[in-house]
Structures are given as structure tokens and as C-alpha cells.
Amino acid sequence: MPKPPAKKSAPRRTSARELVFGDLWEFDPAPETADPKLKKRYDLFINGEFVAPKSGKYFPTISPGNEAKLADIALAGAADVDAAFQSAQKAFDGAWGRMAGSERGKYIYRIARLLQDRAREFAVAETMDGGKPIKESRDFDVPMAAAHFFYHAGWADKLDCLAPGRRVAPYGVVGQVIPWNFPLLMLAWKIAPALAAGNTVVIKPAETTSITALKFGEILQEAGLPPGVVNIVAGAGETGAAVMTHPLAAKVAFTGSTEVGKIIMRSLAGTDKKMTMELGGKAANIIFDDAPLDQAVEGIVNGIFFNQGHVCCAGSRLLVQESVASTVLAKLKRRIAVLRVGDPLDKNTDLGAINSREQLERITALVQSGVDEGAEIFQHACKLPAKGFYFRPTIFSGVTQSHRIAREEIFGPVLSVLTFRTVEEAVEKANNTAFGLSAGVWTDKGSRILKMSTELKAGVVWANTFNKFDPASPFGGYKESGFGREGGRQGLLDYCKLI
Ligand code: NAP
Ligand code: MG
Asked: With bands split at pLDDT 50, 70 and 90, how would you rate the model's confidence at 9?
């Protein structure tokens, strides 16, 4: 018998793993076009002016999205850091230290408004220098940074209400060092409360993301902030160490890795400097079988994959109740198969670039350890841009608590999935970490949310949501995630002496 003509069959897609970008609707490129107004060279911001570094040195900053050089950044040496502290001390001993809170508040409001005026320009600069998707910097980082200044401006003339029955006073000069994952937002978290409380500041941004901090110096000039109230010194770890240990720093505030936080604490042991530390995390996102699962999957994706997992409070461990584990995992795989990874400046991009080659290598090594230790890997099979630093969204299932990927902070788009049967087991596993920054609980039962939030050793516990922030809400850690709070009344109190 002659064979019937072969039918044209549709492309076979047997699992989410086989879905590649070509299977999705192709979107036309939608790059954000606002001018980031970048300069070729950025000098240090000391005593209200941009000044060439006494060190005479500059270092390049690149865009991790395409590895193109963006600008040269002045490297602050010990003499530059000293000049910044001298100017901050002079400002504190002078007009700023004597200024009424209501007047300080006006400057802080002005800063907030100017940041809003130049929001799009700052968002593009942030995305180019750091690699995060434009929709993150445009819709979260920059508006939240402005919101922190607005919130703290409102406190400046109400410090008498900060600690009922007590009076408060500023410390003096505050030394601050921040990381690369939320460059402008971390700067706002640090500078806004310091100024509201009447302190003056020397701040160092991370080496790979100094541009928005130095552009912020332009805003301070526009706002007419008195010279020396805020000084911005760029550089690497050595510059950071000089800021943290300077004799004029009455208080130091650090956000970064637990490892560097410990080095700083050791170097300051025996001094009377007041310290706050916002360090690493290994958050558990806990899903019970009565949770709204689709909503929870969105929360998990938001918690670990957006912003490339470059979030200290990222929900990097998923604890899912055994009875719904396979359903949740299947939903997650389908969801990450449609995430768009690529050009950070494209408005459709969900995951942009990893911040630096070093960070990409660190993520790659930790993912390899997961494979070597026997966890099952699932990766989004998307095409990655030829240039720049990118990593595919990755899910590990079959993870046990002893795996490195369950214990160490990966700081990349990598989710480790563990299961549990009972509430007690969920609490046990979630708390079985050296960190304690944040956690998420997904359940229909209010009573269970209350129980979990009291038993979880985490500074923030989100219920049926994840990664939500508000300037009025304090943020900070337990255990090796640090001490002190940022945001809210508690965060502001960390910048005040009680007298
Ligand atoms: P990092 O290596 O600790 O660096 C943080 C900052 O410290 C950078 O400005 C860095 O300069 C500087 N630094 C390095 N060595 C120093 C030293 N010996 N003394 C003083 N400063 C020094 O951390 P990262 O890799 O940039 O940032 C990621 C880490 O930050 C993660 O662990 C994350 O969890 C944590 N983080 C925590 C929070 C929170 O609120 N808890 C928020 C955001 C990030 P260079 O950049 O030049 O090295
Ligand atoms: Mg850069």
C-alpha cells in the first residue's frame, strides 16, 4: 500500500525546558532613550565641589550590559578621604550643626524633588553602570530613593517625637560604605536619615557603580546644600576601609557582604564608634499547601529572578510543602521559560546583566557546586547577548540543607528548592542559616502567618507578598545579616544619640 503523505506537524514542545526565546512572541527592541547625561570623567565631591583626586588616579567604569567603558572615576586615596572628613567636620561644627531642623528639612525636600525631576536620567545612568533592567531602576530604585528623602525631610523638625521622654542629638560625622546592587537607593537609605538627624556625611559607593552617586553630587549643588555636609569619595575596598576607620567618623554605617562587615568590625573593635551593619542574607520563601499558588509563583519569581537576584533579601531558598511541591515546581518552570533576559536598557527586559565579571564567576562556581553535590538543575534555555555578563535563571530541586547552594549567598538568579511537611519543619529549616534578613510566608491562614512571623528569625517577614519596601518601614537583620535598622523611626534613631 502506498504511504499517506507525511502530515506537517507542529513543533513539538514536551517540556518547559525546550521552550526557547524563538517560541515567544518576538518583541521589537524598546530601548529607553532618555539621555543619562554622562560625563567622560567624574571627580570626587568634597566640600561642595567636584575636585581632582590628590591620588592623581582614575579607574574606568564599564557597562556590564555590553562591556563598553562609560567613564573614568576618580580614585580617592587616604589624603582624599581625610580631606572629605575634614570638610564634613567643619560643616558639622559650622552652619549645619547649628541649623534648625525645619531648615534642614527644606534642603532634604529640595533634594527629593530634584531627584524626581531628573528621575529618568538617573534611572538610565543606573541601568547602564550597574546592569539592572530599566524597569527596575525606573519604577523602583529611583522613585524609592526620592521617597526616602521625602520621608526623612518630614522628620527633620520632629526629632523631639522620635524617642518619647528623651532628647536626641546627631553623632557628628558619619562614614558610610555601600554596595553595587542598589547604588542610588542605598545612598538614599544612608544619607537621608543622617541629614535629617543633623549629621554630616562621607560616603563611598561601590567601585563598579559610582556614577549615580557622583551625579547625586550635582543634585546637592543644585539644592544649595552647604559645602561639606555630604562628601562623596569613590574607590575600591581600601578607600572603604579608610572611610570606616577615619578618626573623625563618630558613627559608621556599612551595607555589603558579611565577610567585609566582619573585617570592619574587627578593625573598629575597641573604638567608641557607633556602628550599623546591613549584611548578607539567605531568605526562605515558604509556601504552604493552602497558599494561592499562582500568586506565590509570581512572588517567588519577583523575589529571586528580577534584578538578577542581586538583592540581599532575595528569596533564594524556596521551602514548599511536600503535597504541592511538584505543582509549584512545574508552574515555576513554565514561568521562568518566558522571562526575558538581555539588554538592561530594553523596557521589556526582566533580567538584565550581572553586575561584574567577578560576580558572574562567583555565581557560575556556586551553581557548579550545586550540580557537583547532586541537586537537579533546570535552566531557562534562552539565548544570551554575545557581549556583557549574563546568567540564565536557574532552579535547583532536590536540594538538601547541607548543599552550598542552600547555605551560601549566591547573589544571582538561582533558586534552591527544598520541601517540608509540617509548620515546625518549615520554621526549623528556614531558621537553619547563619543569616536572618528576610523571609516570606504564603498561606491562606492569618493565624499561621502570625505564628510564622514570630518564630522566623528574620528582620522582615513578608506575608503573601515579597520584596515590598516603604521608607516608613524599618529594614535590617538578625545574626550574620547585621544589626541596626534602616528606614522608619528605628532607622532614624540609629543616626541619633539619646541624651
Ligand atoms: P562587599 O564586597 O562587602 O562590598 C560592599 C562595599 O564595601 C563596597 O563599596 C566595597 O568596595 C567596600 N569594601 C570592600 N572591602 C572593604 C573593606 N575592607 N573595608 C571597607 N569597605 C570595603 O559587598 P558587595 O559584593 O559589593 O555587595 C553585595 C553584598 O551586600 C551582599 O552580601 C548583600 O547581601 C549585601 N547587601 C546587604 C544589604 C542589606 O541591607 N542587608 C543591602 C544590599 C546588599 P568595592 O566595591 O570597591 O569592593
Ligand atoms: Mg559599572
From this structure: very low
Return the residue whose CA atom lies nearest to atom 32 of ligand 1.
257
Three cell numbers written together for 296: 506565590
pTM of the model: 0.94
> Which residue has a Cα nearest atom 43 of ligand 1?
312
pLDDT digits (tens, 9 = 90+) for 79-105: 999 999 999 999 999 999 999 999 999
What is the full DSSP assignment across 147-206?
HHHHHHHHHTT-GGGTSTT--EEE-SEEEEE--SSSHHHHHHHHHHHHHHTT-EEEEE--
pLDDT in tens, 408-432: 999 999 999 999 999 999 999 999 9
DSSP conformation class of 355: S
Determine the average pLDDT of the residues in 380-399: 94
Query: pLDDT of 232-268, one tens digit each?
Result: 999 999 999 999 999 999 999 999 999 999 999 999 9
Q: Which three cell numbers mark 400? A: 538538601
Domains in the chain, please, with CATH?
41-279+481-498 (3.40.605.10), 284-470 (3.40.309.10)
Q: Provide the H-helix boundaries in 63-131.
A: 78-93, 95-98, 101-117, 119-130
Write down the pLDDT at residue 3: 53
Q: Which of 255, 277, 483 has the most ligand 1 atoms within 8 A of CB, as the residue to mutate?
A: 255
The catalytic position among 126, 136, 278, 486 is 278
> On the CB side of 187, how many CA atoms lie within 13 Å of its CA?
31
Are 188 and 176 contacting, i.e. CB atoms less than 8 angstroms apart? no
Q: Is 238 a catalytic residue?
A: no
Instruction: Decide if pLDDT at 17 tops 60.
Output: no
DSSP-derived pairing of the beta strands 284-287 and 438-442: parallel
pLDDT at 14 over 70: no
Q: Report how far residue 359's alpha carbon sits from residue 268's, in angstroms, rounded to the nearest whole number.
A: 28
For ligand 1, say whether the CB of 237 is within 6 Å of any of its atoms.
yes
Q: In angstroms, what is the span from residue 179 Cα to ligand 1's centroid? A: 4
- What atom in ligand 1 is closest to the CA of residue 477? 41
Mark whether 278 is an active-site residue.
Answer: yes
Are 394 and 414 within 8 A, CB to CB?
Answer: yes
**Residue 148 CA: distances (Å) to CA of 153, 155, 172, 190, 198:** 8, 11, 21, 9, 16
Whether 311 is in the pocket of ligand 1, judged by its Cβ within 6 Å, is no
Other residues' Cβ atoms within 10 Å of the Cβ of residue 102: 10
Pocket probe mutation, ligand 1, options 181, 184, 186, 263, max atoms within 8 Å of Cβ: 181
Among candidate residues 198, 182, 195, 105, the one with its CA nearest the CA of residue 145 = 182
Q: What is the mean pLDDT of residues 455-484?
A: 96
- CB 179 less than 6 A from any atom of ligand 1: yes
Q: Please tell me if the CB atom of residue 111 comes closer than 6 angstroms to any atom of ligand 1.
A: no
Instruction: Give which of 390, 439, 380 is closest to 412, Cα–Cα.
Output: 390
